Amino acid sequence: ATFGTLSDRLADTFKNLRTRGKLTASDVDGTVREIRRALLDADVALEVVKTFTGAVRERALGDEVNRALNPAQQVVQIVNEELIGILGGQQRRLEFAKNPPTVIMLAGLQGAGKTTLAGKLALHLKGEGHTPILVASDLQRPNAVNQLQVVAEQAGVAVFAPEPGNGVGDPVKVAKDGVAYAKQKQHDIVIVDTAGRLGVDADLMKQASDIRRAVNPDEVLFVIDAMIGQDAVATARAFQEGVDFTGVVLSKLDGDARGGAALSVASVTGRPIIFASTGEKLTEFEPFHPDRMASRILDLGDILTLIEQAQGAFDEEEARKVAEKFATDSFTLDDFLQQMQQLKKMGSLKGMLGMLPGARGMRDQLDNFDEREIVRTEAIIQSMTPAERRTPKLLNGSRRVRIAKGSGMTVTDVNQLVQRFEQASKMMKTVAKGGVPQIPGMGPI
Ligand code: GDP
């Protein structure tokens, strides 16, 4: 996954740190040097790395660490805060026009994921009660208009496209007509897809900036492929000069990218990252939260996104009940099974588990994670008596042997399930009470 290697390297760095008590200047320098190397290897731009490590070093040598009970934890905390900073600090939401329609223009290189994003954004906004329409101003790529029509249909939103067979249309005119049409039909949001080239070129920039001038968008979103590597900074700068943009969308964050683009673009351009795209499906898309991304990178887990996704899939009442059960320690194996079944409905269990704190260390297990696991869990839990499901503490040795026999599993399988259940309840209980889960082996930060 994105940031996998970077995460692992940072985790190793912090692990080395953990064995020290008080930190000497040379411990700090060693740590900063490792962080610097890890970031450069992840394709983060040199200028960003320099600023980042400079800030971390200065703070790590300062009083806040010296006085801390656990200096290593304090360093992790500093790295976390600085990481949030280079990712843009606060979350920035989409801004809507006072007088609708809000016009959102998309810009970026060909293949960056603009057309896909148009569909994702439309679906997301529709879910919030808006009535978006897509406008096909990418007349460069032969199939682009058709592709936009396909994503519009998938998202269940309207599309404005030039009549086919009218020869090569004028993208600026299409954009203008599209906005006028949206006004007339009372769509409250217009998303204008524009053409990209494989590389930055003057024609592309001129066309994009002409469209920008013609439709006066409220937001110009620059879509950048997270896998673009070291080219990220130059591409972002070229678009900033050529068209200028109000926000960034990182696409393909699901790829095996080293993720440097993600960590460079906001701080180099001073423009916030507003959304992240994490797959080809229209639902694989999320508002970007710098703090959550930082904790994913540092493997502190992304509990908040996890909980939001869970809330999207369960109804709110249900989510509240579960949270209460966690907080009051009355979460049972029956609830556990039900949660697993619902997770399965949500789709990628692996993706969800990947957001749990410490999950990086479990990655091998996750990669081997088999959704048939749920079936096995079901078999085991169903072989328990109602009392055992309510009170797992009852599960002594002989009961476990009986359950293993009844479900056709081994006693080890049963033990593992009970252990997982206990870990999950413990962690969720902390979260439900508003606490921060612990980094395994390091205590809470
Ligand atoms: P455009 O040329 O900028 O409009 O880019 P497209 O939207 O056509 O996307 C180019 C390719 O990238 C398509 O094959 C998409 O399915 C794929 N794609 C777009 N966004 C994502 C993403 O977040 N993750 C992955 N894995 N693929 C994506």
Automatic annotation (TrEMBL):
PROSITE patterns: SRP54. GO terms for cellular component: signal recognition particle. InterPro entries: AAA+_ATPase, P-loop_NTPase, Signal_recog_part_SRP54_M_sf, Signal_recog_particl_SRP54_hlx, Signal_recog_particle_SRP54_M, SRP, SRP54, SRP54_GTPase_dom. It catalyses: GTP + H2O = GDP + phosphate + H(+). Its EC number is 3.6.5.4. It is an enzyme of class 3 (hydrolase). CDD domains: SRP_G. GTP binds at residues 108-115, 193-197, 251-254. Residues 272-285 form the SRP54-type proteins GTP-binding domain. Keywords: Cytoplasm, GTP-binding, Hydrolase, Nucleotide-binding, Ribonucleoprotein, RNA-binding, Signal recognition particle. Its main location: cytoplasm. GO terms for molecular function: 7S RNA binding; GTP binding; GTPase activity. Involved in targeting and insertion of nascent membrane proteins into the cytoplasmic membrane. Binds to the hydrophobic signal sequence of the ribosome-nascent chain (RNC) as it emerges from the ribosomes. The SRP-RNC complex is then targeted to the cytoplasmic membrane where it interacts with the SRP receptor FtsY. Part of the signal recognition particle protein translocation system, which is composed of SRP and FtsY. Composed of three domains: the N-terminal N domain, which is responsible for interactions with the ribosome, the central G domain, which binds GTP, and the C-terminal M domain, which binds the RNA and the signal sequence of the RNC. NCBIfam families: ffh (TIGR00959). Belongs to the GTP-binding SRP family. SRP54 subfamily. This is Signal recognition particle protein. It comes from Arenivirga flava.
